[in-house]
Amino acid sequence: MVSTANARMRESAGNLPADVTSFVGRRREITLTKRLFSEARVVTLTGPGGVGKTRLAVRVASNMRRSFRDKAWFVELENLDDGALVLDAVIEQLGLGGPSSAAGLETIVDQLKNREMLLVLDNCEHVIEDVAMLVDAIMRWCPGVRVLATSRQSLGVAGESTVVVPPMQVPDPGHLPPAEAYEQFASVRLFVDRAKAAVPEFEVTADNADALMRLCHHLDGNPLAIELAAVRLRSLSLQQLEERLADRYDLLTEGRRGAPPRQQTLRALIDWSYELLDERDRRAWARMSAFSGSFDLSAAEHVAGDGKGVDILTAVHSLVDKSVLMREEDGGEVRYRLPHTLREYGLDKLAEHGETNLVRDRHCTFFAELSARFAAEWIGPDQAAWVQRLRNEQDNLRMALRHAAEGSETGGTALRLVTDLWPYWGIRGLNTEARHWLDEVLDNTPRDLPERAKALRVSAWFALLQGDLERVQPILERATALTTQRGDEIERAYLALLHGLIAFFSNDQQRGTELAEEALEQFRKHRELAGELWSLHALGLIKGMGDDPDAGLRMLAECIQLSTERSELYWRSYAQWATAQVQMRRDRADRAENSVKEALRLQRKLDNRLGIAFSMDTLAWIAHRQQRFERAARLLGTSSALWDAVRSAPGFWARFAGDHDQHLMQIRTALGPEAFDEQYERGREMSLTHAADYALELKRTRRSSSGSESEDNVHPMPLTRRERQIADLVAQGRTNKDIAENLVIAQRTVEGHVQNILTKLDFTSRAQIAGWVAGQRTGDAADTEAR
């Protein structure tokens, strides 16, 4: 979406991945790539695996991001195995969206057409046709967007310039310079940097400099090869490493005359790294290549183990130590990842061992079981943790779905997987991806599988979320036929509830009530708690907004009580939001505000963007009733951005569309078009975090000189502890580099924090931050004196 993308850009200055290792060399390529962007709007970095295309792209984007109003944004395509998902990957990773259920290409073009940004598309070669189609459309309709792609081949789009990323400069072994001159070669500098990381006491001396430079020549200046070789210094000297590699290349490249020499070198080095491992580690490497993206230890043990006492933990530790596996830690959780080239190598070895299908089946089974556990435990205290867990596993879930959908004997697994995940798809706003998988799985699985009825019902729900009413009824008819045939009373109750909601949203109050009551009775009879909570919420909303608001509030209170007893967040938040809707109907704006703010707090924990969109809209209506017109307009802007994010719109919900439009027009009239548009756009440009803080009024309100509260005098309080620390250093006149050195963190991290501070405080300069810090100190002193 335009607004959410713009807000995220303003908040974090892009989403470029952090580079945790130092960057060495590539000045010529950086300069050339930046120069080409003065002549072309698409530049593709090409070259073989391991040559450093991704890191070069990130560095170029980091250098250039300030040249674009909306900074630089990164989309990783490596883990996609289906070109049909390219557009959804772009939408998700950029935070785009839109109310249309049409193809994602139109959405992306519509949302980026007014952006000024650098878009980095990484690892395009395996989905190159779909990427080329996307880039061609962006070039035609989004004049402010520049594209930097990495691929093993060019995209082939009009106006594209290519930069062949060569290996790093290497010494000529026949004319080696003096030892102290080794730093003139980028490959040698990189090797030394990585060697010191592996062996901190490593130093270049007159005795080992020649071996070092000859070794970098043997490695052909390939960054991945250099990094793989450098770690061997933990057990070998430079001279020993040079001798073994030189002999090995002569041996291993004999049988590969058809491959380019530098690819032979990298392959030979990976072969050597592989063959130095024991059998346990080799098998673990090959089997772990089945993962897409990152994975945790429990997944590795299931997929890479063989049930014969193989110690996967030891193998993982060994592979991390040898720089085969990358270790990542976030929030106390450790995960692992194979670099792209090493994963491809592992897949080849997996095929050589004849284990591809076996390991793919294990992988699919593990993630199908994970999804089943999610579905079984969803109504409970761990909903926020589950959402984060599935978010981490999203690439693996896609791979499991692909494998299950393609197998002749795994159709039931595919159907269960895609339906077990439906709350996750909805919360993450991945409605289009959910429909993609549902359509594919339903098309590719036998018609007599019992799981089809639920999959059809979930497919109808997502079609309803996107306003695709033409498809909803036919899908529900097929689901009803299957459910009736099988006599599944619980599924029949879900279908009744869905029909009731459709009737309600179509303004058929009586029909909606009858069907929701029928569903609730069946869910209680069969002790189906998830269905009972959904029905209580739906029936409370239907009755509450009809002619029996007291009954509606009682049902919503029951829903809140049941969910609270189980520490459940999802339905509790929707029941709180529905309570606010009913209270608004009764002109109880204060009670409505308390309820909807509680709903928003709960929805925020789950990152439930559809729920947040509803809550923001309702808060705007409440502000309108309170005659806080500027706040109302700004909240309508934030809700507009969120509707776009989930690719839905108030107009899809006929029961609310009229109220939404009426409030919008009245607020616009009260403020005047110019003032309304200004506040509305400010709302659209807020980050989700800032918008939620604003909506919840988690800010200190100061009084103007007239003694009245002013929206313009609202300051975000507090910053995070780290942001306040950095703000204090900014106020002292420190540069970002000084702050990074003082706090022992990366300069890029400091830049991100400073941008967050500017966004939260609605400032545009460091001088304003300094003034704010001084004001806070004065205010704190006054508070202390008053106490």
TrEMBL record:
It comes from the Bacteria. One of its GO terms (molecular function) is ADP binding. Pfam families: AAA_22, GerE, HTH_77. One of its GO terms (biological process) is regulation of DNA-templated transcription. This is LuxR family transcriptional regulator. Residues 712-777 form the HTH luxR-type domain. InterPro entries: AAA_22, HTH_77, P-loop_NTPase, Sig_transdc_resp-reg_C-effctor, TPR-like_helical_dom_sf, Tscrpt_reg_LuxR_C, WH-like_DNA-bd_sf.
